[in-house]
Specification:
The structure is a single chain. This protein has 3 domains: about 40 residues; about 210 residues, Rossmann fold; about 170 residues, Ribosomal Protein S5, domain 2. It is about 25% helix and about 30% strand. The protein has 10 helices and 24 strands. The protein has a 9-stranded mixed beta sheet with strand order 8-7-9-10-6-11-12-13-14. Helix 4 runs parallel beside helix 5 and helix 7 crosses helix 8. The longest helix has 18 residues. The radius of gyration is 27 Å and the shape is elongated.
């Protein structure tokens, strides 16, 4: 007598299982996230399992050799990935539609193919002809093996029969197992595919690069446990209306998650930015309302031009527009300026913009934004070689931010002449050709910036 199929419901966000459907997950609080999964008894996987070895002392283990890494030669990519792509690992590359995931992947494949590593590329979303056309635009002429196969068993079979160093799955949401009575992209299909691909990677010693999509909130689309099943999670970020892209690591078992890679989207594909510190610095005339600030992206300091414009409002409710920073942070800064420095901003429209379309997400830009607003209010220029670093407190005091010394060292290389940082008392010191001025409050910075 055939056994009955059993259905369970799994939260696509956190992986919690339940015997019945629920509108809201009690574990993570997500709404309408439970999907039905039919449990099917399968035969044992055709992938041979490695024999189980006994425990080994840590001191007897040798570190990963360089031969275990596939170095692409693309410095920005290799740095973020942890020095290269490790063998027997699964890498998840995600990003929004049209951001350049397939372009970056093709360039990585080209670099590896040129070094003698065979690449097998599975694409169910695009035809082989479309990929060939893109490769032609990118100037890629290597013999990359292409397949439009989307059935999981056939993909695993081709992986076993081909001697390849890298296998690309574009994308995981399209891969399916016909034995499972669910459509591609569901929790059941993705869980099964990721588990069997992981087995195949460990057995064959190959590296698997999986491409995934992201949701509107910026998270990887699909069940949350997918991120736990891979070794490296890479996010390709940027605004499709701007030409820069940032590659960052959300998870990395082989390296730091503090590294970022900066690229520009050119006609020939993604091009590495060798000096990202100054990439977002504008070369336009430096007028009133323009100020230089700094943010940290990973362990790299990035210098930004922050612009502010204030004008007398003709509306009953003055406009507050922020491009590149959080509107709530802008409102706090404006309230501090009005309360502590006695400027009347209730009759002023205020517009804030970070040049280049970059979005700053740390409070270290607070001082720079405040000085940009003051510069526009007074209609007085600030020196282009002045740099402002610090968090602005509600009392008008300045608070220290992480990696201040690293930002100062980088600013010295870029030719800044003065840098204003938080300090308990007003004092200045020289470091090379850079004057480091520490001030306790915003008022002290404003007085010193225009007096000297």
């Amino acid at each position: 007598m055939a056994a009955k199929e059993k259905s369970i419901f799994i939260c696509s966000q956190c992986g919690k299982s339940s015997s019945k459907w629920m509108g809201r997950c009690p574990e993570c609080g997500a709404w309408d996230s439970f999907e039905e999964e039919v449990q099917v008894k399968r035969k044992s996987s055709s992938v041979k399992r490695a024999s189980v070895s006994g425990p080994v002392a840590l001191k007897e283990l040798s570190p990963e050799a360089d031969s275990e890494r596939l170095r692409t030669g693309m410095g920005e990519f290799d740095r973020v990935a942890g020095g290269g792509l490790f063998r027997k690992s699964i890498v998840l590359l995600s990003g929004g539609p049209g951001i350049g995931k397939s372009t970056l992947t093709l360039q990585v494949c080209d670099r590896l193919q040129a070094q003698g590593h065979q690449v097998l590329y599975f694409s169910a979303e695009e035809s082989a002809v479309q990929i060939k056309d893109r490769a032609g635009r990118l100037g890629i002429h290597q013999e990359i093996l292409l397949s439009n196969e989307e059935r999981l068993d056939e993909i695993l079979a081709l992986m076993e029969t081909r001697e390849t160093g890298l296998v690309v799955i574009d994308s995981i949401q399209t891969v399916y197992d016909p034995a499972l009575d669910t459509v591609p992209g569901t929790v059941t299909q993705i869980r099964n595919a990721m588990f069997r691909l992981r087995e195949a990677a460990q057995h064959s010693g190959k590296t698997i690069l999986v491409i995934g999509h992201v949701t509107k909130s910026g998270n990887v689309a699909g069940p949350m446990f997918m991120e736990h099943m891979v070794d490296v999670v890479l996010l390709l970020e940027g605004d499709d209306k701007n030409y820069w892209r940032i590659l960052r690591s959300k998870k990395n078992r082989y390296g730091s998650t503090q590294e970022i890679g900066v690229f520009t989207m050119e006609k020939e594909g993604l091009k590495e930015v060798l000096n990202p510190s100054s990439f977002f610095m504008s070369e336009s005339p430096f007028l009133s309302g323009s100020v230089m600030g700094s943010v940290m992206e990973g362990i790299r300091p990035i210098f930004l031009e922050i612009q502010a414009l204030t004008s007398r409002s003709v509306y009953a409710m003055p406009q507050r527009v922020a491009n590149g920073i959080d509107t709530r942070l802008m409102n706090i800064i404006l309230a501090v300026i009005e309360k502590r420095l006695k400027f009347r901003l209730g009759e002023q429209d205020v517009f804030i913009n970070i040049v280049g379309g970059f979005r700053a997400q740390e409070p270290s830009v607070g001082l720079a934004v405040a000085m940009a607003v003051l510069s526009s209010l007074k209609n007085k220029d600030l020196k282009q070689k002045d740099l402002f670093i610090g968090e602005l407190g509600l009392s008008g005091e300045l608070r220290k931010v992480p990696f201040t010394e690293k930002r100062i060292e980088e600013s010295l290389k870029l030719g800044f002449e003065r840098v204003f940082i938080p300090g308990t008392e007003h004092k200045a010191k020289q470091k090379g050709g850079l004057e480091i001025i520490s001030c306790p409050t915003l008022a002290a910075v404003a007085e010193r910036a225009w007096s000297g």
